[in-house]
Amino acid sequence: MPMTPERWTHASSYAQEVFGVEPPHIRANKAAADAAGLPTWAITGEIGRFLALLAGATNGELALEIGTLGGYSALWLLEGLGPHGRVITIEAVDAHADFAEAEFNRHGVADRISVRRGLARDVLPVIASEVGPGSVDLVFIDADKESYPEYYDVTSDLVASGGFLVIDNIFGTGTTWINDLSDPGVAATDRMNRKAVEDDRFDTTGLFVRAGMLVARRR
């Protein structure tokens, strides 16, 4: 049976309804972000649950995120980590960082989620020197696509044995798709995808969910 736009829309709604049920504080975060007029490109609930599941399959101590936005995915990551787990999340837009920090305070997790402000290319080397190679249980990247190859290079060294490197939008975004290699962001994503699948430090696959997700586990 071929996929149609109608079936795709229904399946997406079904996935969110059945698998995307959020804990109350995460649901409240999403509602607050919507009310504040933040961009709507955050992950959906079923993807958040997937991130929490992956985080729970690791040592559960440290997750690193590139692209905080309103804090939705960081809260999901924290949900999956162990009781002493913490999240470091990088955000380039001050207004988004302000909102996320206020939300983490509101939900009582500000002591476990650290928001680092600035461009990831500037902030990542500082974090890498702080935590050291092989120290991060899960890396989640959902940021500017043109920098994906650079982000992969830096963060792949940080992933612990048995840990995960997860990257969103590997097939497209709301405005571009993987077939248009004339777009700089698409071309960069394609380079990163091909580099990742050939990296023998990881077992890697690409999942066709939403706009695609790369999942790599460090051997």
| Domain module tally | 1
From the 3D structure, determine the CATH topology.
Answer: Rossmann fold
**SSE pattern:** HHHEHEHEHEHEHEE
CATH superfamily: Vaccinia Virus protein VP39
Spans where pLDDT lies below 50 across 5 or more residues = none
Model description:
- The protein has 219 residues and is an alpha/beta fold.
- The chain has one domain: 3-Layer(aba) Sandwich (Rossmann fold), CATH 3.40.50.
- Helices cover 44% and strands 20% of the residues.
- The protein has 8 helices and 7 strands; from the N terminus they run αααβαβαβαβαβαββ.
- The chain has a 7-stranded mixed beta sheet, with helices on both faces.
- Helix 7 links the parallel strand 4 and strand 5.
- Helix 3 packs parallel to helix 4 and helix 7 runs parallel beside helix 8.
- It is globular and about 50 Å long.
In short:
By secondary structure, the chain is of the alpha/beta class. The chain has helices at 5-19, 24-35, 45-56, 72-80, 94-106, 120-131, 148-156, 184-197, and strands at residues 62-66, 86-91, 113-117, 136-141, 159-168, 202-207, 213-218. It has a seven-stranded mixed sheet, with helices on both faces.
Tags for this entry?
alpha/beta; globular; 7 strands; 219 residues; Rossmann fold
Secondary-structure map:
Blueprint: H1 5-19, H2 24-35, H3 45-56, E1 62-66, H4 72-80, E2 86-91, H5 94-106, E3 113-117, H6 120-131, E4 136-141, H7 148-156, E5 159-168, H8 184-197, E6 202-207, E7 213-218
